[in-house]
């Protein structure tokens, strides 16, 4: 009866148009349009009647195919509702259809919670979890006061532009994948699968395999979205394997109540070169918190690496950031350095926090082995950093990993508070003068960070820097100033 009423209504709606004596072609088009509309209405009615036929107390199984898929029920009969689309995708359509799908998902026990700006999905039994993730870091930088005109420039850039996913199955299996688009091209960064378990009380482990981020030095182990300054220290950027921050391999990690240890063995980072063997890198780090309380931590750390380079990867030239990432003319360089066979690096960390104040000192050396009987080339770097949360928030120290993470802002501005405000200062020194073409540089930075909430921040750095170079376009001594700012969000 309801279908007949719909058809009659459609015919009545067409009556005014018919009264205007349309041409045969217009009449044919009108009839076809009316037929299509009636068919659409019938389809919607079929779906609505099918949904209304399901008892309110019955569990609902949404199948991804046209064949009903029964499921056992503890408190009601088995009912199957078929859908010609994947259950995780809600297609556009009438409001009643989308509402019914949401109700079906809720009845199935699927839950969602909101974390750092994006939802975390949990299956009904809690076994499966899934979360999108990413970061957007937008920078502007201006340099002035240099005696070299080419260094006095203003630039913009994306420090990070990442999208990815993470998830797990049960409490043991987990995975993560991220790609970065900051250089206007796709760059695979973190991409791994992992397994974790507990050995005993207060002792657990995980093992990750894939494209792995280094566990090396304090700021070298801190993500680009969590560093207290807009660029990592020269210890993290210069005392580093030749392959950089990432490599494909395996990393087991052991955790206890007051620290952790990791061992990483990798080849090259993601690339398309399979005609020769990868370089090999072995890296280890351990951190310990001999003092650990609710408002204070003492941090000690040691790390080291050794790499053997394949014959085609013998270039060891370094051009290290000293006054900001987005001024390509402002670097401390080794000059051309060819014929490398491998490198060995090591370093130490000492610091911690008490209440809203934190301090961290880092130092490291890297020995580059050269062919032809030449002596090793040694790089040296050190830094001293500190910060104070004037709003009383605690520094975002992660005692499990011995690095910085996202802060826990007590009074976000989105809840009527001031957010968290941090003042920072750093001095760092880098020395490549162990080789005739090598340069040297130092930088003093003062900064301010305003965390609007736990995943959104504004940063400002003012850097006074000085460099010395024996050769090249920046030969001689030079100094100047760089002011940089960032808007960042991590989700």
UniProtKB/TrEMBL annotation:
Keywords: Signal. It comes from the Bacteria. Residues 1-19 form the signal peptide. InterPro entries: Porin_dom_sf (IPR023614), Porin_O/P (IPR010870). Gene3D superfamilies: Porin (2.40.160.10). This is Porin. It comes from Croceibacterium mercuriale.
